[in-house]
Amino acid sequence: MTSIRTRLFLNTSFLVIFFMFVGWLLSTLILEEYYLWNKKHSIVENSKIIEQIYNANDPNISLELERIGSNLGAGIIITNQDGYIKYSSMGRIGEPNAFFMPQDHHGDNPAFPPHKTMPKLVLKTSETIDENSVIEVEEDQILNIDFLSYKRILNNNDILRIRVPLAALSESAAYASKFLAFSGIISILIGCVWAFFFAKKFTVPLLELSDVAQSISQLNFTQSCTIRSNDEIGILGKSINNLSYQLNKAISELNQKNLQLLKDVEKERRLEKLRKNFISSVSHELKTPISLILGYAEGLKENVINDEEQKDYYCSVIIDEANKLDKLVKDLLDLSQIESGFFRLDRTDFDLSLLLDQIVLKYRTVFLEKNLSLQLEKAPQLLANGDAMRIEQVLANFLNNALDHVDSSGLIEINAQEINNKIRVSVFNTGNHIPSDSLDNLWLSFYKVDQARTRAFGGYGLGLSVVRGIQELHNNAFGVENITGGVKFWFELDLATKI
């Protein structure tokens, strides 16, 4: 396929050659005719000037005739009706002249010598200008030269004759044609060189536009046009850049929306799966305590026990399972409010150190009964901002989780310190590490690493889910880490507003 640069170069070169050839051809064919026409017109105009200045009694008329003759490159004479030469641009009157051949004639005017008349020439063509003038082409058979001869009858009936040799016109036309051919060759060479560079310069931006358009077709929007001209190509380049930007923007937005749509679809699937799992888990978790409550309640009703000790045991089981159901219902209510957006925080500034002291005091009896060691590390005062009641709930869930999983070493540590403009609270308990594949799942509802162990301690896998919801509402981080000797759960709090 021929490139546009090559075609533009060839077409431009062809036009240059064509017009130069046409110019040379026209000069060869009609330049001589044009010279002849122009010479005729000039002779006629000068004859009118001569007629205006002509004065038969003025002896200086010859100088004016000589000047006009020089300008025309012609011979000029004025004769009377009898053919005697009265004025001439060819020299003095009475002297022989090779241009005008003498002819015998006798005249009575003593001012003009005889024997100075025009020779007879062979007439070839004749053209009447008006009733007083005619232009003829005559041939001098002796010299074998054609002359353009103009004859005009002046106001006093004298005859004005202007004669121009046509050989000079033909020679001028030939020289002009040769010069045009020579200059045409040079012009063609220069024109072809110019056409080459013009085609290259003209097609460079087109090739750039083509490359950018090709990149756009392949959804590659990194390229852009660098054309800075203000012509149509520059406008096209700006349009392509704008098109590339708009397409890139539209495709980026479409990809983001598609990605968001995929996330939404995945979220819906996950929520649907969680809903099914949630219903299944709730049904399972409710089944056991309800069955135990019903069984022991029926036993009491049927009086299957005979002593007070067994009766107290039955009542204790019913109360314990009822408390578990109560905790389960409260956690489910909290999760439902959090996920539905109805859960609201009552944020205030409070002293976290004082809250930690109160929690430790509440759990003192539990630690003593289980023979556990509790270490609390904190500053005397830590002013935090948040929902104090919900923060206490987070701490309680972490402590209950630590109490359920602490090993025989029996050590639980609570640490609170200011880090990076946040207060970080951590609860550590000695014990086995959590499997790495379960670390992220701990915060899901009803997720249990050890089903049997969790049931034994009365857990339902909702406490950490509630922690997650409370922390997300506070826009603060939380997490769990396996460290040397045990497991550490942590969460962060905002510092109180400083006034």
Notable characteristics:
single chain; 499 residues; alpha+beta; Beta-Lactamase; Heat Shock Protein 90; 7-stranded mixed β-sheet; 6-stranded antiparallel β-sheet
CATH architecture of the domain at 4-173: 2-Layer Sandwich
Number of helices: 10
β-strand number: 13
Q: Which geometry do the CA atoms define?
A: rod-shaped
Low-pLDDT residue intervals, each spanning 5 or more residues:
94-118, 451-458
Mean pLDDT across every amino acid position: 77
Label the structural class.
alpha+beta
Instruction: Write down the secondary-structure element order.
Output: HHEEEEEEHHHEHHEEHEEHHEE
Tell me the radius of gyration.
Answer: 61 Å
Q: For the report, how would you describe the main beta sheet?
A: 7 strands, mixed
Task: Identify the CATH class of the domain at 4-173.
Answer: Alpha Beta
Structure description:
Among the domains are: 4-173, 2-Layer Sandwich (Beta-Lactamase), CATH 3.30.450; 344-495, Histidine kinase-like ATPase, C-terminal domain (Heat Shock Protein 90, 2-Layer Sandwich). The protein is rod-shaped and about 185 Å long. By secondary structure, it is α+β, with helices and mostly antiparallel strands. The longest helix is centred in the middle third of the chain and has 70 residues, at 232-301. It has helices spanning 4-53, 61-72, 166-217, 232-301, 308-340, 352-362, 364-369, 388-405, 451-456, 463-474, and strands at 75-79, 85-88, 122-130, 133-140, 145-153, 159-165, 348-351, 373-377, 383-386, 411-419, 422-430, 478-483, 486-495. Mean pLDDT is 77; it is low at 94-118 and 451-458.
